[in-house]
TrEMBL record:
CDD domains: SRPBCC
Protein name: Polyketide cyclase / dehydrase and lipid transport
Organism: Actinacidiphila glaucinigra
Pfam families: Polyketide_cyc2
InterPro entries: Polyketide_cyclase/dehydratase, START-like_dom_sf
Length: 141
């Protein structure tokens, strides 16, 4: 099930882009998660405790930073066996010098049946919404 998160920030689009595509910082804001960069255009989000760990390998298939009033766009394809789907991040410049960040994600977990799609989307909105809030917070450098 696809979910959408939108945030408005006083940060300029280039700075908002830098923050929301900082994969290691992003993972630090999601409970029990770390990010392991595995290549120039790939990384794995590793979530869990003890032996209960799930890897979410992702490949960046679109990378267009904001430039000259044009929005930035990034698309991640999930390449794992357990976590399936994709994520798209857009960072739009606003006329007041700030930015608008839109996060869309199709998040599915194998082997959960379709009946878990709504709770999974709800949890994704909650977790990634909090992560975006942390990434876009003024105090973050």
């Amino acid at each position: 099930m696809i979910f959408r998160i939108e945030r408005h920030s006083p940060l300029p689009a280039a700075e908002a882009w830098r923050r929301v595509t900082d994969w290691e910082r992003h993972a630090a804001l999601v409970p029990f998660t770390t990010a392991v960069v595995t290549g120039e255009r790939s990384f794995t989000a590793r979530t869990g405790l003890g032996r209960a760990i799930v890897d979410d390998p992702m490949e960046i298939v679109r990378w267009e930073p904001p430039d000259a009033g044009r929005p930035g766009r990034c698309r991640l394809e999930k390449r794992g066996r357990t976590v399936l789907g994709w994520a798209e991040i857009e960072v739009w410049p606003r006329q007041d010098g700030g930015s608008r960040v839109v996060w869309r994600e199709d998040l599915r977990v194998r082997p959960l049946p379709g009946a878990f799609d709504r709770p999974t989307a709800w949890a994704g909105r909650l977790l990634f919404g909090r992560a975006l809030d942390g990434l876009l917070a003024r105090a973050h450098q």
